[in-house]
Design brief:
Elements lengths: L1 E3 L8 H18 L1 E3 L2 H10 L2 E3 L2 E3 L2 H10 L3 E4 L18 E4 L4 E2 L7 E3 L6 E3 L2 H12 L21 H12 L4 E3 L7 H10 L6 E5 L6 E2 L1 H13 L3 E3 L13 H22 L5 E4 L17 H17 L3 E4 L10 H17 L3 E3 L9 E3 H18 L2 E3 L1 H4 L1 H7 L9 H6 L14 H6 L5 H14 L8 H20 L1
Parallel strand pairs: 2-12, 7-16, 8-17, 10-11, 11-13, 13-14, 14-15, 15-16
Antiparallel strand pairs: 1-18, 2-4, 3-4, 5-6, 8-9
Helix pairs in contact: 1-8, 1-9, 2-8, 3-8, 4-5, 5-6, 5-17, 6-17, 7-8, 8-9, 9-10, 10-11, 11-16
Length: 481
């Protein structure tokens, strides 16, 4: 049996080698800023040239880091009702590797849209839990991020309280953006209380261009030491924090990601590390930072190709829009960017449902993205060619002018064809008889039904109490520091 799946690529091995060689030139000649004493010590001992906080990294150190980094990373969900000491069924694991795409939401939006298309308010902590609980019900969502940055929280407990809300809402693997490294040990303990310590990862970023600030380097080292997967992604702007050419833009981002990889592997060889694609663009007329510039998706494709060249899982975004509303522009951009990045083969495709250039989330948008992910997965499945699927005997049995309706082959295989829940595939008369609703109206109705229905996941009372205790402990540690 041979399955021919759809995918795209912009950089073959020769192009990847050229980008890598230019990156090594930057790391050896220009170097990076590292504002973290322990990281500087690790780099210096390993053979980097240190000049204050400027670090020049030889090719050998990059090669060693790439050889040490795992090519596959396992995340474990937290099955409902499972005690911390119970074994996790192997079938429940989620494996991150180059070329296999998983779909998830994004983090830390300031505003929430809906249920109306123009209603917008500041997010709250209960939105984090409700969003996680909604995603628990959506089969197309493979991993969960917060989608909200609750402004009412005390900064001392912000990330721990956000993490607890997500743990209460879902059993799916989580990706977190902690404000620093202080609460990482406690957060790992929180995940263990809920069923699997290794059920989550961290997303962090360097400071562009070419700076690993204290917080970023600290998270790199602590995640490596704790075995917490790190998705390290850049946020450059062409013509501002990086050159305006696409190739040079990729080189600067690659230098940031590979130097971060070196720090992580020096801290703990074999540390799980996810290559975050180079991202960012802006409208030069308004200076507004964009999510949907077409150039950004060509660059993301090249970065995914580089990650595959290195054998590393990758982290990129799609299913997003620069529109401030859930409108026609949102649907157009969300669909295009989802498909573009899914076809790249990125490992973790995040930010599904974003609006307003990453500032705004929406329950309705996530529900619609779940439907769109199902469409994209069916498309990317491609064509399987074997004796069964070629069906020569079936064609002969029906013959010219015959019908395949009612045939066992049809009953057996038609279930493999996608039947959408929200997209209309009716005649005008059928659509009108069913209520004549718009897509957004159907999405809003379905979203409300999901939010009003019983939750499929509830923590035990003891687990909830232990989470509250650990959140308080995280706050005490920070306030005592």
């Amino acid at each position: 049996m041979t399955t021919h799946r759809l995918h795209t690529s912009v950089c073959g091995d020769d192009a990847c080698r050229a980008l890598h060689a230019a990156t090594i030139d930057v790391l050896e000649k220009t170097g990076v800023e590292v504002r973290h004493d322990r990281a500087l010590e690790l780099l210096g001992r390993a053979g980097a040239r240190i000049d204050g906080t400027r670090v020049r990294i030889p090719a050998r150190m990059v090669d060693d880091a790439l050889a040490a980094a795992p090519k596959a990373i396992t995340l474990w969900p937290r099955p409902a009702g499972r005690a911390a000491q119970d074994p996790v069924p192997a079938a429940c694991q989620v494996t991150l590797r180059a070329g296999a795409t998983l779909y998830g939401t994004g983090s830390d939006c300031l505003y929430l849209l809906g249920p109306g298309t123009r209603d917008r308010r500041a997010v709250r902590l209960d939105d984090v839990e409700e969003m996680a609980a909604l995603q628990e019900r959506l089969a197309g969502i493979d991993f969960v991020m917060s989608m909200a940055h609750p402004g009412e929280l005390d900064p001392a407990i912000f990330d721990a309280a956000q993490f607890a809300a997500m743990l209460r809402g879902t059993t799916k693997p989580l990706l977190m953006v902690p404000q620093d490294a202080d609460a990482l040990t406690i957060m790992k303990e929180m995940a263990a209380v809920c069923g699997a310590a290794d059920s989550w990862g961290v997303y962090a970023m360097p400071t562009p261009p070419l700076i690993h600030g204290f917080e970023s380097a600290d998270r790199l080292i602590r995640c490596a030491e704790l075995g917490i997967p790190m998705a390290y992604a850049t946020a450059l702007l062409p013509g501002a924090t990086a050159p305006a050419s696409r190739a040079a833009f990729i080189v600067v981002g690659n230098a940031e990601i590979l130097s971060g990889l070196v720090i992580a592997q020096l801290a703990a060889p074999g540390a799980p590390y996810i290559y975050g694609v180079t991202q960012g663009s802006m409208n030069l007329r308004t200076s507004h930072v964009l999510y949907c510039a077409p150039e950004s998706y060509a660059i993301q494709q090249a970065c995914v190709d580089l990650a595959s060249f290195y054998g590393l899982p990758s982290f990129g975004y799609g299913g997003v829009s620069d529109s401030p509303l859930l409108d026609e522009q949102w649907a157009l951009e969300a669909g295009m960017t989802l498909l573009a990045n899914a076809m790249s083969g990125v490992t973790l495709l995040h930010d599904l449902g974003y609006a307003g250039s990453g500032t705004t989330s929406s329950f309705e948008a996530v529900v619609l993205m779940d439907e769109m992910v199902r469409w994209v997965k069916a498309y990317l499945e491609g064509i399987t060619i074997d004796t069964e699927m070629l069906a020569v005997d079936e064609i002969d049995a029906v013959g010219p002018g015959g019908t395949h309706l009612g045939r066992k082959f049809t009953r057996r295989h038609y279930r493999e064809w996608l039947v959408p829940d929200l997209l209309s595939q009716q005649s005008y008369e059928g659509w009108q008889a069913a209520g004549g609703t718009t897509l957004l109206e159907r999405v809003a109705q379905r979203t409300q039904e999901l939010l009003d229905g019983p939750r499929p996941h509830e923590l035990a009372e003891g687990q909830t109490g232990e989470l509250e205790r650990l959140v308080e402990r995280a706050g005490s540690l920070r306030q005592g520091a």
